[in-house]
Amino acid sequence: MFPIRDHNPSGRIPFVTYALMALNIAVFVFMLPISDNERALGQFYYDWALLPRRVMAGDGLSGLVTSTFLHGGFLHLAGNMLFLWIFGDNVEDEMGHLRYFGFYLVAGVAAGLFHVVADPASYVPTVGASGAIAGVMGAYLLLFPKAKVDILIIFIVFFRIFPIPAWIMLALWFAMQFVGGIGSVPGTGGVAYWAHAGGFVAGMALAVPLWLARGGPRFWQANHGHPPHPEASYPALPSRIPKVKRR
Q1: Chain-centre distance of CA 227, in angstroms?
Q2: Cys-Cys with 141: which of 59, 153, 170, 221 at CB 3.0–4.6 Å?
């Protein structure tokens, strides 16, 4: 189950979201020549990734920012860019371009700090934009809880697209990160669940002043929990699964 789009395109071009996506893709392409060179890749990650143990020693602090533009593979990159594309445009539209850019960076740093606190002795390089994007998702949940998000559900041969309120999808996602963080073993690598959860909480907290400035609950009431733009309509996609008639 994963989101594929929302129903409320932004009211203006999300230049910063597109620029962040382009930068992440460009860095990934730049890394391709060394992706098969274990020694070169290890040195690159040492210089630019987030290593909690280095941060705890007061070194490698720049990794809190630079690690958010690195990815460990194509699927890692593609998944993160999909989430940024879905949720970033409306948050950028509401915040404004410059404020949104600062918000994104701060959320990414906060996510990295959560990961450091959760696993301070780890020397496993941590990379990915997901902590910063989790911050965007937290802000989206606060600002537009009832916006419709299309979810693609795949179960063996069954697949279907369901539109559901954003709060359901985002609450489930956050719960999965929280449970994953509790079950994770420090120092073993894998998914940085606490970075995701921490970025989400930080993003929601950072969006509170904007939400209050817009009127708080009155902002929800005025727009019914949706972005203040006309809702897009998408044609229904027919299923290729044959129907079985009952006798």
Answers
A1: 18
A2: 170
Please give the Cα distance from 17 to 32 (Å, whole number). Answer: 23
Structure tokens, 142? 């606060």
Residue 45: what residue type? Answer: Y
Separation between Cα atoms, residue 164 and residue 156, nearest integer Å: 21
CA Rg, the chain, in Å?
A: 19
* H or E element that contains 52: helix 52-56
Query: Residue 199: what residue type?
Result: G
Q: What is the C-alpha end-to-end distance of the chain, expressed in Å?
A: 33
- State how far the Cα of 223 lies from the Cα of 146, in Å rounded to an integer: 9
Q: Which two tokens stand for residue 53?
A: 């143990």
Give pTM, 2 decimals.
0.89
Order the strands of the 148-155 sheet from edge to edge.
2-6, 148-155, 158-165
Q: List Cα–Cα distances, 147 to 94, 141, 168, in angstroms.
A: 14, 9, 10
Query: Using CA of residue 228, residue 149, residue 178, residue 44, what is the dihedral sign?
Result: negative
- Pull the structure tokens for residue 228: 């203040």
User: Which tokens in the block code for residue 191?
Assistant: 């998914």
Q: What is the 3-state secondary structure (H, E, C) of 104-155?
A: HHHHHHHHHHHHHHHCCCCCCCECCCHHHHHHHHHHHHHHCCCCEEEEEEEE
pLDDT in tens, 136-194: 999 999 999 999 999 888 776 667 888 899 999 999 999 999 899 888 777 666 789 99
* 231 Cβ neighbours under 8 A, 6+ residues apart: 7, 8, 148
All residues at 6 or more sequence positions from 201 whose CB lies less than 8 Å from its CB, including other chains: 138
For residue 1, the Cα-to-chain-centroid distance in whole angstroms is 15
Is the pLDDT at 21 greater than 50? The verdict is yes
